[in-house]
Each structure stands twice: as structure tokens, then as C-alpha cells.
Amino acid sequence: MTEARLRTFVALADTGSVREAARRLYVTESAVSASVAALGRDLGVPLVRRVGRGVALTEAGTVYAAYARRVLGLLDQGRAAARGAADPGRGTLRLAAVTTAADQVLPGLLAGFRGRWPGVELALEVGPSRRVWGSLGAHEADLVLAGRPPAGAAATVLARRPNELVVVAAPELAAGFAEAVTPWVMREPGSGTRVTAEAYLAERGVDPPSLVLGSNGAVVAGAAAGLGVALVSRDAVGAELAAGRLVVVDAPGMPLDRPWHAVCGPEPTPTTLLFVRHLLDAPGWTAPEGTPPENR
């Protein structure tokens, strides 16, 4: 049961295809099949089954894939921790961020950090809330930049920054806004902003028409085009507000205070803490009360 076999199996689980797993790993399809078959023999249970001309995970395979991801994540985290302990400025930092944070908050921070610590190897995953928190739980990310951690997550908040959610619309649509009938443009399922918007509408007891768009940028563009109102971070629409393409709608109960959080697992690596100290030097970022000095 080698690391290579685990990585091959996880690639197959992620892609759902022997061919795509082979492409991802730069190996032959027969090598993927042989590796997964050997792993199944080691475990004593079949991990995949034939479906037409392809394969799918068995129930045992689905269960084992979650463990395999965590094992591989821990191995990567251990390597990063060891390198960072030897020299934090030459370690590895695996970041995961929700789309708005990646677009609006991270670029300047990463540029400044790279200037101070050019020897750090940086990796960034961008996705909806569900995905980035899943990466932290599977030890595939050292630090997450997103909203509040989900309940029950094994997560430590190391820094916060104010973030205001506002309802925006094109000026002509905002002028006639009616919460029960004005259409909304929404993020994709799994987005924290989508969950917040749905909870807000449910709390107001209204169910207006909605149009689901596939990214934060598409939502902002759709709102500016007059497709509907949108709940977005004020950080994401500064240019549109300044240019008059969007205006803030005077919606009941708005704006919402939803701070950005920089969150790690129970044992942050030295290089993670190096980045957090860089965060805390940036305007607006503060350490939560009670944060141990060694984690600042």
C-alpha cells in the first residue's frame, strides 16, 4: 500500500476515468488499472467495478477514497511542516480560498508575501465554501481564506478582516426594487454567499424568481446587466459602484457583517504562521482575542 498507489486511486476517484487519471499522473492507463487492482488486493475488497466501458467506485471504494485523501493530505502537510521547521522562509504553503477572497483579497497579499519571502513554494486552490473547507478537513490545505468555519470543523481562526455583504443592482432595477418580486442572480450550489442569500430570503418569507450563474464574476456582471439583484461582498463590486454600473439597494436588514477568516487546522506549519504574520501586518486584519502569541 504505497503512496503512489494511493495517489493513483485518488486520481481515479476524482476523475472517474482511468484515462483521465492516467493523463493527470502522466502514466499509462494500464499502470493506473494495475495500481488500483493491487491496492484492492492489499485491502481485500474491490474498490472499483465495471460500468459499461468505464469504471466506478464500489461502496468500499467511495469510503476508502475519503480516507486516502486525508492520508495523502497529512503526508503533504508533514513534508511542509518539516521543511518549514528547518526554514519557514523556504517551506511550502497550500492556500485555499473562496472565489471572492481569491479575486479581491489575496492578490495584493500574495504579491507582498512573495516579495518578502520569495523562497516559499505557494499553491492556491479556489472554489466554493464547501470545497475549500473540505480541503482543510482532508489536510489538503494549510490555510483557508473564507467566511466563518462550518460548525464542528477542526479549525483554528488565526486572523479576521471585516467584510460587508450588500444587495446590489443596476440603477434602473434598484429604483423599483420589491423584495418579493424583483429577480435575484445567485451563485452556484456550495457557495457560502448562495446559502446566505437563501437564508435571508427565507427569513423574509419571500420567494422571488432567481437565476443561477456559475461564478462570482458572472453574478456581478449579470447584476450590472439588469438580470436581477445580487448579494455580494462589497469588496467584489468597488469598481462597479464607483463607476455607477451598480448601486447598493436599500434592502431590509442589509448590509450583513460577514468577516473574512484565515483558518488553519489544529497544528499550523511554521510557514503558515509566517503568512499569518504577514496578514496581520496588512490593513484591516486582526488576530482574534485569545490567540496564542506563537500563532500570531
From TrEMBL:
Domain HTH lysR-type as annotated: residue spans: 1-58
Q: Which PROSITE patterns match?
A: HTH_LYSR
Q: Which UniProt keywords apply?
A: DNA-binding, Transcription, Transcription regulation
Gene3D superfamilies associated with the record: Periplasmic binding protein-like II (3.40.190.10), Winged helix-like DNA-binding domain superfamily/Winged helix DNA-binding domain (1.10.10.10)
Q: Which InterPro entries match?
A: LysR_HTH_N (IPR000847), LysR_subst-bd (IPR005119), WH-like_DNA-bd_sf (IPR036388), WH_DNA-bd_sf (IPR036390)
Record keywords: Kinase included? Answer: no
Q: Which PANTHER family match?
A: HTH-TYPE TRANSCRIPTIONAL REGULATOR (PTHR30126), HTH-TYPE TRANSCRIPTIONAL REGULATOR CYSL (PTHR30126:SF39)
**What does the sequence similarity comment in the record state about its family?**
Belongs to the LysR transcriptional regulatory family.
Q: What is this protein called?
A: LysR family transcriptional regulator
Q: Which organism is it from?
A: Actinomadura rugatobispora
